[in-house]
Amino acid sequence: MRDLFTMILAGGKGERLHPLTDQRAKPAVPFGGKYRIIDITLSNCINSGLRQIAVLIQYKSHSLDRHIRMGWNIFSTELGEYIISVPPQQRISEDWYKGTADAVYQNLFLLDNEQSPYLLILAGDHIYKMNYADMYQFMLEKEADAVVGAIECPLAEATRFGVIGVDEEYRIQRFDEKPSNPMSIPGDPAQAFISMGIYLFKTDVIREHLLKDARAGTTHDFGKNIIPRMIADQRVFAFKFQDRNKKSVHYWRDIGTLDAYWEANMDLVSVDPLFNLYDQHWPIRTYQGQYPPAKFVFAQDYQGGRMGIALDSVVSGGCIISGARVQNCVLSPNVRVEDHADLRESVVMENVVIGQHARIRRAIIDKDVTIPPHTEIGYDREADRQRFTITESGLVVISKGMKVHGPVDSSG
C-alpha cells in the first residue's frame, strides 16, 4: 500500500445539509455522538494500511482543519507518513476548485513530490467500511489503468446516481450520470452498478487526463468527464464493493440531506444497527476530548417522575442526564438535560443545555444551544416553522449557537 498516494475530497459546500454546514464543511459535521463524518473515511484509510493522505479542503474549513490536526496527527513524519489538510494553493490559477478533477489537478505538485505509482481518490462525506487494499489487488489482477468503486443498487433507484455499465469481466463500457434508463448488471436485470465516488488510477495515466481536462471546457468532474473519456482507450474496471461492516446488507450512505443524516444517526441507537461502530477489528478513530464519564442522576425520585434515564440512546462523555428522560437519541459530548425534560428521537451536538420540563422530539440541535425551560419542539409543526428550519418529513433543525426563546407567558 506504500505505492498508493491518497487524496480525500473534502471541499464541497454541503448545501443540502444547511444549516449544519453554515459554519463548517460537510465532512466536519458531527456524526454518531463523538465522531465527525470524515472520521469514517480516514479510519478506512488507516485500517487499509494507507500512510500518505492529503485532505483537500476548501469552504469553511477551519473546524475540519482543526479536527485533522488535533485528532489525526498520529504518524511519524520521519517515516514519510502523514495526514495533512491542503487548502487551494493557487499554484496553477487563482480559481478555487471548479470540480473534483480540478481539485486533484490543482494539487498535482503533491503527486510530483511523492512519485507514487498509484493515486487513490476518496470522498470525505460518505459512511461505509472498505479495505482499499482489496481494490488495489483487483487493479493489479486486471492490469487496469483505472478502477471505480461500485455498489449494487435497485434499477429503479439508480437514476439518482452515476450508473456504471460493465461487461461480464466488470470492464466499464459506459458511465451515465443520473440516466433515465440505467444499464443493469450482466446476469442481474433488477440491479445496476452505481459509482461510490472512489477512484484508483495509475498516476501517469490520470496525470495525462487531468492535463487534457484542464484545457477543455468541461465541468472538471471525474464521473462526468474523466471516466467517460478514459473508457474509450484505457483499461477501466468497476470494483464491486466488498463491505467490511459485517452485516447481511451492504452499507454505504451519502448523508447529503438533513433527513438522511438524521436517519443514519437514528440507525445507531437501534438494537442491531446497520452500521457497526463496535467492531474492534475495524475501529473508527476520532479526536478524543478530555471529558468526564456520562452521568445519570436522581434515580431516587423515580416515583415522582424525576429520574435520569437514557433508553436506546448513544450518550457521549461529559453528558449529564439530570432527572430527565432521553430516548432514541444521539448525544455528543457535554450535553446537559435538566429535571423533567423529555428528549426523544433527536441528535444533539456538543455544549447543548435542555432546560427543565422541555419537551423535544425529532430534532437536530447543533452546538452551543440552550433550550429554555418548558419549551416544546417537534409537537407543533407550524409553530416550529416560524422559528426553525423544518425538513419535508417535519424534522426540526436548530442552528449552531442559535438563541432559542422560551414559551410566551400569556397569563399577564
Number of domains: 2
Q: How many DSSP helices?
A: 9
Percent strand: 25-35%
Q: Radius of gyration over alpha carbons?
A: 23 Å
User: What is the arithmetic mean of pLDDT?
Assistant: 92
Q: Percentage of helical residues?
A: 10-25%
Largest sheet: 9 strands, mixed
How many strands?
A: 29
Measured between the Cα atoms of the first and last residue, the distance is 71 Å
Uncertain runs: none
CATH fold-level label of the largest domain: Spore Coat Polysaccharide Biosynthesis Protein SpsA, Chain A
Overall shape: it is elongated
Q: Name the CATH architecture of the largest domain.
A: Alpha-Beta Complex
CATH class of the largest domain: Alpha Beta
The CATH superfamily of the largest domain bears the name: Spore Coat Polysaccharide Biosynthesis Protein SpsA, Chain A
Query: Helix- and strand-based class?
Result: alpha/beta
Describe this structure in words.
The protein has helices at 38-47, 62-71, 100-105, 108-114, 132-142, 203-215, 222-231, 258-267, 381-385, and strands spanning 4-10, 30-31, 35-36, 52-57, 82-86, 118-123, 126-128, 146-154, 162-166, 172-177, 191-202, 236-240, 252-254, 295-297, 309-311, 314-315, 320-322, 325-327, 330-331, 336-337, 342-344, 347-348, 353-354, 359-361, 363-365, 370-371, 376-377, 389-390, 396-398. The N and C termini lie far apart (71 Å). It has nine helices and 29 strands. 20% of the residues lie in helices and 27% in strands. Strands 1, 4, 5, 6, 8, 9, 10, 11 and 12 form a nine-stranded mixed β-sheet that branches. A six-stranded mixed β-sheet has the order 16-19-22-25-29-28. A five-stranded parallel β-sheet has the order 14-17-20-23-26, with no helix packed on it. It is of the alpha/beta class.
